[in-house]
Amino acid sequence: MNMRKKLDISAYLVVGPENTLGRPVGDIIRAAVENGFTCLQIRSKTASARELIALCCEAADVLQALGKAEDVVLLVDDRLDVVLAAREAGIKVDGIHVGQSDIPVAVCRKFLGPEAVIGLSARTQELLNYVRQADTRDIDYFGAGPLHETATKPDCGRDAAGHIITRSFEELTELHAISPVPVVVGGGVKARDLPALRKTGVDGFFVVSAVAGAADPAAAARELVATWKAAPRS
Ligand code: TZP
Ligand code: MG
User: Fold this and answer.
1) pTM confidence score
2) 5 lies in a domain?
3) Residue 135 domain-assigned?
4) Residue 56 beta carbon below 6 angstroms from any ligand 1 atom
């Protein structure tokens, strides 16, 4: 197990320059964090390493300015090279989020050390198998999804008819029940999903477009956080 302080993934924003309708990523992050978001992930499949490092710097600066650098976790999707380079440059990046086909979590842990936050995402069935068979000592949380079809991640698994395969509340309840680490769920999540999602017992929700694509990201973040907090947990 790692040696980090308590991790809060209850309200988790995933964001990159392709998700913000042309607005600066830092502005979206500020809107989310000022309204209660607890975790951030920089995710871009098109940005260069240099751009990703600059985005980490922008995000870390926003957290610093808001006095949230110690409370809100800043992660990068997939790119261990970017996390290491950013840290080398003195930017406070807390860890990495990887998928099952990305760099293995044990390798991330070796490079990033015991205090880093490392998240792993996969399909629910794969996560259930993982929990049953594998060692989760290097993993701080699981990401599961999508809850609904989403255009934000076109490479989600699809059925024979080409529809994205979504996660049921039953699957998520089971995952939460047997997972030794916290679980965060996303994919097409809107505020109206949060009461049912919280009832499964999972630890949080993640969103891209519900905040980064909103006309008023601050109001959207506020509504999401308030709805989650007001919903009873199982
Ligand atoms: N992983 C599973 S779905 C997804 C990711 C990164 C994208 C979710 O985006 P949105 O806009 O909240 O549906
Ligand atoms: Mg990945």
Assistant:
1) 0.96
2) no
3) yes
4) no
